[in-house]
Amino acid sequence: MEALKDEGNMLQLQPDVAHAFCQWQCCFRQSLHLNQLLCFPLTEPYCSRLYCGPLLHRLTAESEIKPDTIKGLMNEKQRGLFDIIHHSLEHEALRQERRGRKHKIEKELDNNMQKKNRHNVESK
């Protein structure tokens, strides 16, 4: 226990990280309350399996967090869930990128049409 206290004293408080953890806790708590309000349509999760504070604090202390670093700390079920979430986020990022490109092309086409129309009006 003393070693944990010493390690905790050595870590610097990062306000943005603490704020993110606090937001996560609030969302988690509200989801538990909603589940209770709806008479438990979902089984109540084991909080200790979903959140490990010391692990997250250690990960935030690292300068660069890679998916492989995180996956190495997980059991098989957690890795499977992580892979699904990671794949979903990559898919969403690609979709957003394509949507952005499509919007940019549409905007360029619209600008070209406006220039063409101005040119036609001026030439008459």
Structural commentary:
- The mean pLDDT is 79.
- The protein has six helices and no strands.
- The chain is elongated, with a radius of gyration of 25 Å.
- The longest helix is centred in the last third of the chain and has 48 residues, at 76-123.
- The protein has 124 residues and is mainly α.
- The termini are far apart.
- It has two domains: 1-65, no CATH class; 67-124.
Task: Give a short summary of the structure.
The chain has 124 residues and is mainly α.
Key descriptive features of the protein:
124 residues, mainly alpha, 6 helices
Our count of domains comes out at: 2
Mean pLDDT: 79
- Could you give the count of β-strands? 0
Number of helices: 6
The major β-sheet equals: none
Distance between the termini: 87 Å
Q: Write down the secondary-structure element order.
A: HHHHHH
Gyration radius over CA? 25 Å
Given helix and strand content, the structural type is mainly alpha
User: How much strand content do the residues show?
Assistant: under 5%
User: Outline, from the CA principal axes?
Assistant: elongated
Q: What low-confidence regions span 5 or more consecutive residues with pLDDT below 50? A: none
Portion in helices: over 70%
Give the secondary structure arrangement, pairings included.
Elements (H helix, E strand, L loop, with lengths): L1 H9 L4 H23 L9 H4 L2 H9 L5 H5 L4 H48 L1
